[in-house]
Amino acid sequence: MADITLSSATRSNLLSLQRTTDLIDRTQGRLSTGKKVNSAIDDALSFFKARNLSDRASDLSTIKNNITEGINVVQTAVKSLESMEDVIKQMKALASTAKSEDSSTVRKTLASQFNDLASQLNHIVNDAEYNGVNLLNTSGETFELVFSEQTTTRRLDVDSTKLLAAQLGGGIDTAANDWASAANPDTSLTNIDSALTKVREEAQRFGTNAALMEIRKDFTEEMINTLEGGASQLVNADVNAESANMLALQTRQQLGTISLSIAQQSEQSVLRLF
After folding, report:
1. For residues 116 and 261, what is the distance between their CA atoms, to the nearest angstrom?
2. CA pair distance 44, 54, nearest whole angstrom
3. What is the predicted pLDDT for the residue at 265?
4. What is the pLDDT of residue 146?
5. Most buried of 84, 113, 197, 219 (most Cβ within 10 A)?
6. pLDDT attached to residue 273
7. Residue 5: left (phi > 0), alpha (psi -120 to 50), or beta?
8. In the 3-class helix/strand/coil scheme, how is 60-103 assigned residue by residue?
9. Dihedrals φ, ψ of 42, to 5°?
10. What is the DSSP letter of 2?
11. At how many degrees (to 10) do helices 44-99 and 104-127 cross?
């Protein structure tokens, strides 16, 4: 078989068409995936930088979910403390009424109601649990919430407390001596005031912790958005620019095809002269 000989003009046009076709294929790939860097082959530096950013964003997303759970744990304690304060206020109202009541029978009835409320107070404390964590019925334990994916030292430690009625204000679990005498409610009132102070202090402490967690959650979410945005800038394609580039390449391809055809026709015309 005879070798096919191409003129320099034809060869040049064919090479130009091949380069244009390759560019069209690349642009089509970018438009179909929305990315200008799909693998390390396209741009190793950008590809691995983007991967590192995306990996950290993923790790922080887990941290953010943990913070959300932590907020729920602490908010459960705060809401429970608010309910406890309402119950203790009712207990105080009963003690105040008993203090001014002359009838020991009535005081005893009020004392029974007081004791019932104390039981309800304990129910609230024991029910103040979220996902297995209760910050109100045990002292000496610490709920740890880690804020960083890089080290566990960047965290918030929330100490638990024991706020059952027997531990509050010297003990408000029972009416003193069933309020047998008019002086007995005074002891209960003193303990109740101390209990209210303690409950409010703990509510403020847990509320402060919850507010800090919210701040860290917002910060973490902003970090995730920044990292994901940075990764996208490294690998994502500009669809508008790529679309315009595709149109230009298609036009170049058409012109290249025409140029190749003209070159071939010119060569054939020359050959006819011989």
Report:
1. 101
2. 15
3. 62
4. 95
5. 84
6. 47
7. beta
8. HHHHHHHHHHHHHHHHHHHHHHHHHHHHHHHHHHHHHHHHCCCC
9. -65, -50
10. P
11. 170
155-159/129-130 β-pairing: unpaired
* Residue bearing tokens 């009541």: 101
**Does 220 reside within a domain?**
yes
Give me the DSSP letters along 206-241: HHHHHHHHHHHHHHHHHHHHHHHHHHHHHHB--HHH
Helix axes 184-235, 44-99, angle to 10 degrees: 170
Residue 186 sits in the same domain as residue 52? yes
Residue with tokens 């203790």: 88
**DSSP H or E stretch at residue 145:** strand 142-146
Same domain for 221 and 247, yes or no, is no
For residue 122, the model assigns a pLDDT of 97
Q: What is the domain range of residue 244?
A: 239-274
Please state, in angstroms and rounded to a whole number, the distance separating the CA atoms of residues 11 and 165. 95
In the three-class reduction of DSSP (H, G, I as helix; E, B as strand; rest coil), residue 263 is classed as helix
What are the per-10-residue average pLDDT scores of the chain (274 residues)? 56 72 73 79 92 96 97 98 98 95 93 96 97 95 93 94 93 90 91 96 97 97 96 81 74 70 58 48
What is the number of structural domains in the chain? 2
* pLDDT value for 35: 80
Q: What is the pLDDT of residue 183?
A: 87
Instruction: Kindly state the tokens that stand for 203.
Output: 């509510």
